[in-house]
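User: Round two. Same drill as before: sequence, then structure, for each protein.

Assistant: Same drill it is. First protein:
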Amino acid sequence: MASLQVRSAGVFGSLLLSSLLLRENVLALIITQVCALVDQMLASIGAGATPELSWAYGAAVALILVNSLSYCMLLHLLYHLLLGRVDSKAFGNAPAWLRRAFTTTSP
């Protein structure tokens, strides 16, 4: 769960840094795209409503959290699969606690 929070903070931090460097409000551009996406989804089901800005911000944050969660889950899965097969001799002169941390498998 901590990796999800760190990843999400990194995404928001990169949005902030990009906004500062580009001198453009990148979050506003994302919200515009999310509003258009939600508007198209509502139009496809026949609803004549337009999304509110707070809903668009909520949807954007939810999409970023889902992106971060899926990325972290895939990363943990790949690390588990790849590092689960690592031979303990591959660590060379690494401390014993580090070798145990990477070579033990969780039940």
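Second protein:
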Amino acid sequence: MFGLEFNVLPIIILVALLVFVSKAWLTVPQGFQYTLERFGRFKKTLEPGFHLITPFFEGVGRRMNMMEQCSTCRARSDHQGQRHGRRRRRGVLPVQDAARRPTRSTIYASRP
């Protein structure tokens, strides 16, 4: 066409090579660990950093967050002794709206 000979095969090989190389590297961020699976079976655990894998045969199975987390701590506002911008004193409940506060008649009416 227009006097130019154009071969598509080198372009297809180049694109396939670029896809292969782009899938071959894996970077695990700091504070995480990834499990590497080959054909769906666990192979090893990847630590944070740069890794080379075999594309199409190996893949990431699970991404685990390894950062320290406090499971016994309460919410930050309660932990600092404040809630919604008001100071909380020990033994004193937060003030409720008068419209939402139960009345004596509703308390006694709900008893069996």
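Residues 105 and 111 are 10 Å apart (CA to CA).

User: Perfect.
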